[in-house]
Design goal:
With about 180 residues, this protein is mainly beta. It has two helices and nine strands, in the order αββββαβββββ. The chain has one domain: Lipid/polyisoprenoid-binding, YceI-like (Lipocalin). The longest helix has 15 residues.
């Protein structure tokens, strides 16, 4: 019994000293350049948490939250390509390769490694992230590329010239520490 109380006290103590940052503001956008058409979309619904003590993180964005310049593009994206009714979220979970500690008003580049899940398919990925600290907030930004075939996203031959095989993704936002 004393051991159980010790473990409980230890976990509460460790949890209370963790530096967990939660996404407050965000923008996830992607861009597809193809010979016949450029496609772009934006979501401001990224949710996430980063624990600076252990470098672990988890992010997710609802697929249906992406908005397009055209409602028809948005419908095709959700219904035909990403099938948001079957796969409602894209997630990224993992950790930073190096332990992070920040001085106030510092800018660093960190490499995030983990599993990204899109369209129900999970792949390992490395993403370079730029992080800036000030007071109790973190600002972050990153850019990476996603190959559609890696996530079993099929493009019909009839629109093959309208959609790129590799999509550029930008993620940015602001996080604040949990009180």
């Amino acid at each position: 019994m004393k051991f159980l109380i010790f473990l409980l006290t230890l976990s509460i103590t460790l949890f209370s000293h963790s530096q967990k940052y939660f996404v407050e503001q965000s923008e996830v956008s992607f861009y597809s350049w193809a010979p016949l058409e450029d496609i772009s979309a934006v979501s401001n619904n990224l949710e996430g948490v980063v624990d600076l003590n252990n470098g672990n993180f988890f992010f997710r964005v609802p697929i249906s939250s992406f908005t397009f310049p055209s409602s028809l593009m948005q419908k095709h994206f959700n219904d035909k390509y990403l099938e948001s009714h079957k796969f409602p979220l894209s997630t990224f979970k993992g950790s930073f390769k190096n332990k992070m500690s920040f001085a106030d008003s510092e800018k660093i580049e960190a490499t995030a490694t983990g599993q990204i899940s899109i369209h129900g398919v999970e792949n390992n990925i490395l993403i370079d992230t730029f992080i800036e600290t000030s007071d109790s907030t973190l600002k972050f930004s990153s850019e990476f590329y996603v190959a559609l075939k890696d996530f079993k996203i099929k493009i019909p031959k009839i629109v093959r010239m309208n959609i790129a095989d590799t999509i550029k993704v930008n993620v940015s936002g602001r996080m604040s520490i949990e009180d």
